[in-house]
Amino acid sequence: MPYQTARDLPSFLELNWQMKALRWCGKANRKRAAALELQIRELSDTVDAFYALLGNKHWIFHDQLSLEAVRTILATAGDDADRAEQLLIEYYNDAENLMLMLLPLRKLPAMRRRLELVERARQDYFAGRFYSTVHVLLSVMDGFVNEFETVRRGLHARKPEELHAWDSVVGHHLGLEHAHKTFTKGRSATQEEPVDELYRNGIVHGSILNYDNITVATKAFNRLLAVADWAFAREKEQQRQSEEPPTWSNVGRQLKGLVGRAREQAELDRANKRWRPVQYLSGSEALTSHPAYGPTHQLLTCWKRRNYGSLSELVTHDLHSKHGKSVRSAVRRAYEPYPLTDFEIRSIHHDMAAACTVTAVLDHSGGTRVEAELRWVRENDQADPRPEPRPGQWRLVMEPCHFLTRATPFPPGCPQTGRPAPCRSRSRPPSPLHI
Prior knowledge:
With 435 residues, the chain is α+β, with helices and mostly antiparallel strands. It has helices spanning 10-22, 27-54, 67-77, 81-92, 95-102, 109-112, 115-126, 130-148, 176-183, 200-204, 214-239, 251-274, 285-289, 293-304, 308-312, 317-323, 327-335; strands at 278-281, 340-352, 355-364, 369-379, 393-396, 408-409. It folds into 2 domains: 6-273, no CATH class; 278-423, Nuclear Transport Factor 2, Chain: A (Roll), CATH 3.10.450.100.
């Protein structure tokens, strides 16, 4: 059954029990329990307030939404649901906010295969091609749900009760199940009036014509992230039987779960809000002293020396999770066809607190010379972005050699010395979605 309130989630119920137990463990633990109880209450109240205001507009609270941002939206909008919807759309329509929300999709193998489509939908979204965003994301959701479980049925073929998310905020009674009723609602007669709902069947079957707007496109991203949370919840539900039962010795670790994740997300949001993009150019000491310069130089040196084993240690943890022990072989297969003879690191564009783009000129055998952009993310061992001063390492985010398809060769007659920028038009930096 859907959860009537966020406080009904099993994690919340268990945490409440553990905090009651902590109160019997000394004065220090009583203070700690009181502080955690306040944080959990604020979290559940925020989730319930979000659904009370926006649930009937079929917006879904998912794990990647910033609690701080949602509280600001709710405080600003008051009881005005239309105003809250507008502010939420503005939050999604920020390129950095949307990118951060989409990054965890990499952890789902069936979604990882579709990230190229998600990236195209993201580019269309910011270019104002909302009709394209909607259609692409609808196909991604259907294909992902069809592949995710052994029961081969897409999202459109699922009944609402099949989308119950165990121990997840999308499992709220105004969450994913509730919104799915309009998602699959049939439309036989042609409708030309504007719509602001994600009517999947009517849109795909061509009976709803006027859906090319930012509201429907944003709801498509919102639904995609909610479906991802549903998938994470299904995995967690399958693993719960093997999880360590609550004991006095693991109370502290289990208490970190939900509250710790919310705190880390808030810290990351604040870091990106404070961050101001900066670019370091060739010839400056700041370029060579940038923390991403060393890993880039090491990666390109390993490539030049054909040391693919050491090179594989510099790619994102997600690639190691994807390929396991065969990651070195995967890296070799990707890089070996493009032997590198020389390179020059030209610039670093540090555009996000935990991400940057390094531009380098690559000389390949046969006289081919290209300028490529390598996307790096500073992440922890769980592949979560971590800006300074949090523990983390700079790692290459893209699939090995994926950036070569985006690299632009120098045109004939272009000088091969000096700044290459006048010789080509710079494309948008590669997205961290590509792994």
